[in-house]
Design brief:
The structure is a single chain. Strands 6-5-4-9-8-7 form a 6-stranded antiparallel β-sheet, with helices on both faces. A 3-stranded antiparallel β-sheet has the order 1-3-2. It has 281 residues and is of the alpha+beta class. A hairpin with a 5-residue loop joins strand 2 (74-76) and strand 3 (82-84). It folds into 2 domains: 2-91, Winged helix-like DNA-binding domain superfamily/Winged helix DNA-binding domain (Arc Repressor Mutant, subunit A, Orthogonal Bundle); 99-280, GAF domain (Beta-Lactamase, 2-Layer Sandwich), CATH 3.30.450.40. It has helices spanning 2-7, 14-36, 47-54, 58-68, 87-98, 101-116, 157-165, 175-180, 222-242, 248-259; strands at 44-45, 74-76, 82-84, 119-126, 129-136, 151-153, 183-186, 193-201, 207-216, 267-272, 275-280. The longest helix is centred in the first third of the chain and has 23 residues, at 14-36. Helix 3 (47-54) crosses helix 4 and helix 9 runs antiparallel to helix 10 (248-259).
């Protein structure tokens, strides 16, 4: 081994340190995979279930669990199963204290504008209204004019559709929006304007708000809608994770959208006579 080190111009023992560092990282990855195995309704898992979900040997799972348990990351039940302990909650509180939603969302909105040249916004529900919290305007001279603090009726436009679909209670007529995680509108707010919106979820799994793209309705043809929808789903997944939420539903919707890209079936939502109608286009 010393000859190989000498030939490489390294110092004695350097290779051993590198190998140890790789092994340490692998150990951390295995420990994290154990914590990430919980979820999707599986709050408590047996040793065998953890081994199956992580692909690790039971002996490895047991050693990792015995390391994580004293530090509060795992709790062992009387039956010998495990669930998440209180330590991650403390880390989550520290993360939430350090991160402001504006710091997460506004850079993402700016990036969307750079990618699409459409206006991007983040909206929440306020009583029976849709309230704009953050907004980045399109660089195009002709665009919709909406500012932080502006409100619209909750049922108007793609953003309002998403707020209604994931509201409390959820609007029963918007099952397709909940399935696709995307809403598209043309002419709902102004005849010449269109938009696409997707949800962002918080740590409890509830709706945090919606990210929207908006601009001239002529920009929202089928190919553009497919592209915008995928960009928004990727952005909403990152935003949800950054806010401590579970992005699995958004990621699943993105996979479905990508697989269906060769046969697009965009969702078209608009207002007609005061009622909401859904069309496939």
């Amino acid at each position: 081994m010393s000859a190989r080190v000498a030939m490489g111009g390294g110092r004695a023992g350097e290779g051993l340190r590198d190998e140890a560092e790789v092994q340490t990282v692998a150990s951390v990855e295995r420990a994290l995979s154990l914590l990430e195995a919980f979820g999707d309704g599986a709050d408590t898992l047996s040793l065998a279930q953890l081994a199956e979900r992580t692909g690790l040997y039971k002996s490895t799972v047991l050693r990792l669990a015995q390391t994580l348990e004293p530090r509060g990351y795992l709790v062992r039940t009387r039956e010998g199963a495990y669930h998440i302990g209180p330590a991650p909650l403390r880390l989550a509180r520290l993360y939430q204290a350090a991160v402001r939603p504006e710091d997460v969302l506004v850079p993402m909105l700016k990036h969307l504008v750079e990618q699409t040249r459409e206006s991007a916004g983040f909206h929440i529900r306020f009583q029976d209204m849709r309230l704009c919290l953050y907004r980045v305007d399109s660089p195009e001279p002709v665009r919709d004019h909406f500012r932080p603090g502006d409100t619209l009726p909750i049922g108007r436009g793609a953003g309002g559709q998403v707020l209604s679909a994931f509201g409390d209670p959820p609007a029963p007529a918007l099952d397709q929006v909940r399935e696709r995680m995307v809403s598209v509108s043309r002419g709902a707010i102004a005849r010449e304007m269109g938009g696409v919106a997707v949800p962002v979820f918080n740590t409890t799994g509830a709706l945090e708000g919606v990210i929207t793209l908006s601009g001239l309705a002529s920009h929202y043809h089928d190919d553009a809608v497919a592209r915008f929808s995928q960009l928004l789903l990727r952005t909403a997944s990152r935003a949800t994770r950054a806010l401590g939420g579970d992005a699995s539903r958004l990621e699943a919707a993105l996979l479905r959208a990508e697989s269906a890209q060769s046969h697009p079936a965009s969702l078209h939502l608009h207002e007609s006579g005061g009622s909401l109608e859904t069309h496939q286009i």
